[in-house]
Amino acid sequence: MGRARWLHVPFWATYVFLYAPIVVLVVMSFNSGRSAYTYEGFSLKWYGELAQDERVRDGLVNTLIVAVGSTAIATVLGTLLAVGLVRHTRSKTLDAFALMPAVLPDLVLAIGLLVFYGMIQLTLGLYSVILAHAVFSMAFVAAVVRTRLTNADTSLEEASRDLGAGPVVTFVKVTLPQLAPGIIAGALLAFTLSLDEFVIAFFTIGNTEQTLPIVIYSMIRFGVTPKINALAAILLLVSFTAVIAGQRITKIGESRAQD
């Protein structure tokens, strides 16, 4: 019994190692002083200053535009890619190529996209970042939807076709409702990844506009302040909320499928 208790020590130590810096960051975002390392009292003034910072507001707007646009593209293409890989083309090689953007280092993918944009003479801007984020987010959406599709009941689709429904009608009225939890979870994951992504955006956005992670990078070069901590805390809250919502939706879909 005592030995079993000792096995919990590395487990909790790992959690402390992972989340202690996050807890410190959030606590220091409510610091009344200007130091990011010495807590002087509770205050919300840094969150108020964020709301008045025009550069932060513009970066937030650009980030939301990129996240929403890339999520929409990645969700549609990722869902179709998952359906094609599971139902129409069984190939481990194609599976590997489809999921490759998810495992490639961000720096390699960013440089590759930048070179590709240069070859086709595409002017960099928010739309180039949207396309770039859609490339790697699509792989994550496909992975999530594919898992859901593998566990889906194919008898319903067969019954739909036997009753005279065409492939498109069957896909829209039978397949998509079954995949809805996986699609929503994949979309939330894609939104979260795009919201926090820095490297690819830094290489593909150009010089006229900035996303919020790039704004944070330019601010942190002069030192960490409670204002940056407050901004990071807000991003953490949005990211955690999206991830938890995606997991919850996936579990609800799985429980309904079992029933």
Automatic annotation (TrEMBL):
<keyword id="KW-0812">Transmembrane</keyword>
<keyword id="KW-1133">Transmembrane helix</keyword>
<feature type="transmembrane region" description="Helical">
    <location>
        <begin position="98"/>
        <end position="120"/>
    </location>
</feature>
<feature type="transmembrane region" description="Helical">
    <location>
        <begin position="64"/>
        <end position="86"/>
    </location>
</feature>
<keyword id="KW-1003">Cell membrane</keyword>
<feature type="transmembrane region" description="Helical">
    <location>
        <begin position="12"/>
        <end position="30"/>
    </location>
</feature>
<feature type="transmembrane region" description="Helical">
    <location>
        <begin position="126"/>
        <end position="145"/>
    </location>
</feature>
<dbReference type="InterPro" id="IPR051789">
    <property type="entry name" value="Bact_Polyamine_Transport"/>
</dbReference>
<feature type="domain" description="ABC transmembrane type-1">
    <location>
        <begin position="60"/>
        <end position="246"/>
    </location>
</feature>
<protein>
    <submittedName>
        <fullName>ABC transporter permease</fullName>
    </submittedName>
</protein>
<feature type="transmembrane region" description="Helical">
    <location>
        <begin position="228"/>
        <end position="246"/>
    </location>
</feature>
<dbReference type="Pfam" id="PF00528">
    <property type="entry name" value="BPD_transp_1"/>
</dbReference>
<feature type="transmembrane region" description="Helical">
    <location>
        <begin position="183"/>
        <end position="205"/>
    </location>
</feature>
<comment type="similarity">
    <text>Belongs to the binding-protein-dependent transport system permease family. CysTW subfamily.</text>
</comment>
<keyword id="KW-0813">Transport</keyword>
<keyword id="KW-0472">Membrane</keyword>
<dbReference type="InterPro" id="IPR000515">
    <property type="entry name" value="MetI-like"/>
</dbReference>
